[in-house]
Amino acid sequence: MAGRLDRAVESKRGPRVSDFPKEAQCVVIGAGIVGNCLVSHLSEMGWEDIVLLDKGPLPNPGGSTGHASNFIFPVDHSKEIVDLTLESQRQYEEMGLQNTCGGIEVARTQERMEEFKRRMTSAKCWGIHSSLLTPSEVKELVPFVSEDIILGGFYTPSVSAVDSLETGTQMRKKAQEAGHLAVFANTEVLDIETAEGRNKPRVSAVVTDKGRIECETVVVACGVWSPRIAEMAGATIPLTPAVHQMADVGPFDVLVETQQELAYPIVRDMDTFCYERQTAGSMEVGSYAHRPILHRVEDIPSNDEAALSPTEMPFTADDFDQQMEEAIELMEFLGDGEIKYAINGLLSLTPDANPVLGPTVEVENLWSAAAVWIKEGPGVGRLMAEWMTYGYPHVTDPHGADVTRFYPQQRNVHHIEARAEEHFNKTYGIVHPREQWATRRNVTNGPLKARTDALGAFYFEAGGWERPHWYESNADLVEQYDIESREHEWDSRWWTPISDAEHLHMREHAAIVDLSAFQIFEVSGPGVLDYIERMVVNKCDLTVGSSIYTPVLNQSGGFRSDLTILRLATDRFRIITGAFDGGRDEYWFRENLPGDGSVQFENRTNAVCTLGVWGPRSIELLSSLTEDDLSQDAFPYGSHQEVLISGIPTEMFRVSYVGDAGFEVYTPMQHGLALWDAIIEAGSSVKLRPVGAAVYGTSGRLEKGYRLMGSELEDEYTPVESGLARPKVKAADFIGKEAYLAARNEEPCAQLCVLTVEDLTCEAGYRRFPMGAGNEPILTPNGDRIVDAKGRVSRVTTAGNAPSVGQYLLMAYLPSELCEVGTQLQVMYQNEHYPVTVAASGANLALFDPNNERMKA
Amino acid sequence: MRILVCVKRVPAPGSRINVTEDGLSVDTAHLGFTTSPHEECALEEAAQLIEEHGGSVCVLTVGPAEAEEQLRYAASVGGTDFSLVLNDTGQDWDPQQTAASIGEAVHQLEAETGIFDLILFGNESADAGGYQVGVRVAVALNRPIVNGIKGIEVEGESLAASREVDGGIEVYSLPTPAVLGIKEGINLPRYPTMKGRLASKKAEIQTTETKVPAGTQRLVRLHRPEEKVTETEVLGDGPEAATKIVDLLDELGVL
Fold it and tell me: Is A327's Cβ below 8 Å from some Cβ in B?
C-alpha cells in the first residue's frame, strides 16, 4: 500500500505573470470547491474585480477537494446543513455534474435501526424521499451485500456523486468569462496586511510570491490551511486538519461488468463508520472509525514535498485493518481486491463539527469559508456571496456555522483538538440532540460552582459555561409531585424527572437559578442612544430604570438575535443575551459601533454574576433580605433598580422567563457566592430550592410561550410571524427597518403557534416524547408535510413537558390558515405520527397564566 | 525453489527531497516509507517463480524495527518467511557492514532451513543507490551474480537471466545457487489485496541482531543540488497577447 504511493513528480513552479494585479476588490484565497463556487456567485451578484489565488496547480491544487469521495447523502438532522446540501445538489445538477445513484445506510444494530426512524423523520421534514429497507430489499439493490449481518437499511434515491474538480473549473470559468475574475495558481500567499479600520484592523493587501495586491476584502477558503492564512492577518479560524482514511480496492468483475462509474447505490455501513462507493471497476472504502489522527497546519507538507498531494498523507495501514475486516464482512469479494491507492486524507474539523463561515471576529473585511464538505460546497459558495453582498445570506440562517459563534477560550488549539478528537468518531455516530461534550469541561465556571457541585448539579454546557441543568438534591421532589418517568431510553437520555419536579416546586414555592452564563455587554458614551436605537427594533429611549425586550434584525428583516436591554443611565445600556448567542451578538454589536469613538463597548460577562429568583414566595424571600420596597408599586414589572441584598450591592430586574413572580439579580462577580449563600440561607423559610436550566430554558419558558433564538427565532422568520411585533414602530431608524415595515404591511403567511400533543402513545403502547430538535415535521391529518407560501416547512422548534399545564407542548410555525386554535394536525417523531392541536397563536402564546398575573403579583 | 529476497525500507519522497539540518539523512517528517522499487519487482518475480515452480520466498531486511512494515507488506504480496536484521543506530549502515550482516544472516538461515537456490536484490537502493550490497554478498558467498536483470527463466538446475544492453539483450546462464540484481520493469508488481494485508498481520518475523563491524565508507553529508527552474511567463490570453508576443520576438531578435 504505502509502497505503491511513491510517484515521481516533476518540480513545479508557476509561471511568472506579467499582468499580476496590483489591486482588486476582493481576493479569495483557495481554489477548492468553496473558493471556486464563491467567486462564481460573487461574479453573479455584481462583484467585478475578483482575484482567486491558490498555492497549488489547477485544477487540483492539492487540498481536500482533490481527494474527496464526492458523494452526497442529503438527509441530515440539521436544517442548516440540509439547506446547504440541497442547494449544492441543485447547483451540481444544473451544471450536469451530478450522478444520482442512490445511497443506502445499513444497520448492524438495533440502536441504528432506531436511528433510521429518526432519519426517516428528518427526511420527511426536509421533503427528501427516503424509505426503510429489509435486509433482502437492500440485497436487491446491492446484490453483493451480506444480508445476514445487517438488520435493515435506510434508502435515499437522491443520494448522488459529483465531480467537484470539474464543478470548480466551470465555476471559475463562468466568472472569468464574465470578465470579473483573474485566477492565479501556484501563487503562495506570504502575508495579509491590515490597516486601521473602523473599530479594529481591516485588511488592506495580500502579499504573494508573485506580487502584492491591495484589496478591500479577503476570503480565506483554504480548507486545512485556513488557520495559518487567517493568522497572517491576526484572525482565528478554529479548525484542525484531521485524517480520514480511504482506500481504493479492485478491480472486481461485478463492478467492471457494469461499465459504469456508479451502477450501484453507495453504501454506508453506519455501525462500523465506513462507506463503500463504487468508482468504475473498483470500490472506494472510507472510514471514520479509526483513531482520531490530528495534524497541526505547520506539519502539512508543501506541494513539492508531498509524495502525492499535501492532503493525501502517507497511509497508516495499522489504523485501517479493523475497517478492512468489517468491510469484507459486508462485501465478501472486497477481500480479493488489490489495494491500489490508500491515503490518510486530510479534512478540516472544527470544535463542534460545523463549518466556520462569515466575517472573522478580529479583522474587518476578512472572511472565513472553511470546514466545508463537498456536499455543502456550492451552497456555501452562494451563501457566502450573499452574505458578503447583502449583509446576510438567504440560503439558510447560518448561525450554527457562523465563525463568530466561538468564544476566545474555544478558539485555541487545545480546545479545537480536544473537541475534534471527541467528535471525529461520531461522524457516522448516533448523536443525541441533548448530547453533552465530555472533553474540555470545567474550563468556564461561574462563582457558584462549589455550591452547585455540593447540591449534585448535573451540568450542561452553555456556550462553554458549566450550567446546572438539574440538581440531584431535588430527587426527593419526584415522588412528592408524582412525576412520570420515560419508558424509552432515547427519550430519557440526558433527561431526568427531577426537572419537572423542580418546575412544580418553583410554581408552588420559590426557586433560585444559576444564570452565571448570561452574556452581559455594556455600551456607553455620548452617541449611545443613537447607536442602540439603530441596533434593535424596539424603542430604547425610555427612562433610566426601564428595560427593553427586543428583536435584533438583519438587513433582510429576519432575526439575528433577541435580547434584553436595561437602561442603566442616560448614556449607558446593559445588553443581556444568552450563553449560546454571546459570540455572534458581541460581534454584531461591536461591528456596528460608530467609528467616531462616541460609543464604548464593554463585555462585562466575566464581571457580573446573575441569579434568578422566582416563584410565588420569591418576593417575600427577597424582601426579607433588604430594606428596599419590592412591591409592584415601588418596583413594577420590567423595571430595574439598585438594591442592597444582605448588604451586597445588586442590580435587580423584575422580569421572568419562567412566568412567575421574581427577579433577575445581578451582582459583581466577587459577590456572587455571598449573594447565593444569603438567599439560600434565608430561603429555607419559603422552601426555596435551586432549579436547573431545564426549567428556566424549556418547561418554564414553554408554558409562557416565550421564543428562543436559534429555535423559534431564525433569519427566515420576521417579528410579525413570531408574534413579537409591537403595535407601533419607533421613529428612529434601525437595521432591518425597511424589511420590517414591509413585513408589517403584508398578511403573514405563517405564524408561530403552540400545540398540545393529544396522545403520546406510540405504536408499541407506551408514551414517547418528541425532542424539539428541529427535525420533527408537523403534518396534516392525512400525514402530508406542511409548507407555507414562502416554502418554509412547519416543524417543531421546541418541545417539552408543561407540568403546570398538564400537557406536552410543541412550538411550530404554521401557515396562517392552520393557526386557528383547535386545528387538529399531527407531529412526526421517530417515524410515527401523534395527534396535536393548535392551542395558541399570535403574540401571546402562554398556556400558563396567560394574563401574567403571577409575574405582576 | 527456495528464494531469498533482500529489501530495504526507504522514504517515499515527493518531488523535493529535504535533507536534515545535520546533512546526514533525508528529512522524513512528512514522508511515508516504502520498499525500493527494484526490490518490489524482485519480490514480485520471486512470488511468480514459486507460483510456477513451487517453493518459498524468504524476505530479509536490514533496518530499524519499523522496517517490519516493509516485511509485512512483503507478506501481503507473496512472501512466506521473514527476517529482520536489526539496525537500531538510527543511521544506515555502510554497504560493507550491510553486506556482512546479510551474509551472516544468510549463513544462519541456510543452516536452519537449507540453501537458497536464488538470492534476489534490487539493482540498487532507492535512497543511497550504492550498487554494492548484492555484489558484496554474492562474492562473500562465492556465488555468481548478474545485475540489471529484467528476465529470469528456470532451466532445470540452472537459470537464464537476461538484461538489456545497448542494441540488444544479454542472456546469462547461471548454476544455482545464484544471486541476481533485479531491475524495475521486469514485471508489474501486484498490489496487496485486503485479505493479503490482513493475513500479513499474522506473519511471523524473525528478528536478529548482529555484531558485524562497520565498514570503511562514511557518509560525510548529503547535498541537495539547486533546482533547475524553467521560468515561464504567461504573456496573456487571446488576441491581446499578440502585441506582447511580437515585442518579445523583437527583443529576441527573431523578427
Answer: yes
Residues A76/A138, Cβ–Cβ less than 8 Å: no
Domain of B157 in residue numbering reads as 2-226
Looking at the domain covering A747-857, what would its CATH class be? mainly beta
- Which residues of A fall within a CB distance of 8 Å from B231? 13, 15-16
Question: Which chain A residue has the Cα nearest residue B14?
Answer: A307
CB-closest option in B14, B32, B194 to A2: B32
Name residues 411-470 of chain A within 8 A of B (Cβ): none
- Cross-chain CB nearest to A307 (options B12, B233, B236): B12
Contact B15 A10 (CB under 8 A): yes
Q: Is residue B220 part of a domain?
A: yes
Residues within 8 A of A (CB atoms), B 126-165 only = none
Query: Is the pTM above the cut of 0.80?
Result: yes
The burial class, CB within 10 Å (0-12 / 13-18 / 19+), for A333 is middle
Q: Is the minimum CB–CB distance between A179 and chain B shorter than 8 Å?
A: no
Residue B239 placed within a domain: no
- Quick one: which H or E segment has residue A736? none
Read off the amino acid at residue B38.
Answer: H
Consecutive H or E run containing A124: helix A110-126
Q: Does B248 touch chain A (CB under 8 A)?
A: no
Three cell numbers written together for A160: 448522488
ipTM for the complex shown = 0.86
Residue A163 and residue A30 in contact, taking contact as beta carbons nearer than 8 Å: no
CA gap A503, B23 in Å, rounded: 71
- Which residues on chain B are in Cβ contact (under 8 Å) with A302? 16
- Mean pLDDT, consecutive 10-residue stretches, chain A (857 aa), reads 34 57 98 98 98 96 96 97 98 98 98 98 98 98 97 98 97 97 96 96 97 98 98 98 97 96 97 96 96 95 90 94 96 95 97 98 98 98 97 94 97 97 95 97 96 98 96 98 96 98 98 97 98 98 97 95 97 97 97 95 97 97 97 96 98 96 98 98 98 96 96 95 96 97 95 98 98 96 97 98 97 97 98 98 96 90
- Cα–Cα dist A471/A448, whole Å: 14
Closest approach of B30 to chain A, Cα-based (Å): 6
Identify the CATH assignment for A509-746 out of 2.40.50.100, 2.40.50.140, 3.30.1360.120, 2.102.10.10: 3.30.1360.120
**Model confidence pLDDT, tens digit, residues A140-190:** 999 999 999 999 999 999 999 999 999 999 999 999 999 999 999 999 999
Cα–Cα distance measured from residue A732 to residue A730, given in angstroms and rounded to the nearest whole number: 6
In a domain, B232, yes or no: no
B-chain CB neighbours of A313 within 8 Å are 30, 32
| Total number of domains constituting chain B | 1
How confident is the model at residue A2, as a pLDDT?
Answer: 37
Say yes or no for a CB contact (<8 Å) between B16 and A304: yes
The pairing of beta strand A547-553 with beta strand A688-690: unpaired
> CATH code at B134?
3.40.50.620
From CA B227, how far away is CA B246, in angstroms rounded? 31
Specify the DSSP class assigned to residue A363: S
Side-chain half-sphere exposure of A117, counting CA atoms within 13 A: 13
**Burial of A68: CB neighbours in 10 Å, binned 0-12, 13-18, 19+:** buried
In angstroms, the CA A173 to CA A548 distance is 51
Q: What are the residue ranges spanned by the domains of chain A?
A: 509-746, 747-857
* In a domain? residue B131: yes
The whole-angstrom distance between B66's CA and the closest CA on chain A is 12
The DSSP code for A763 is T
Q: How far is A10 from chain B (nearest CA, A)?
A: 6
Q: Do B32 and A324 touch (CB under 8 A)?
A: no
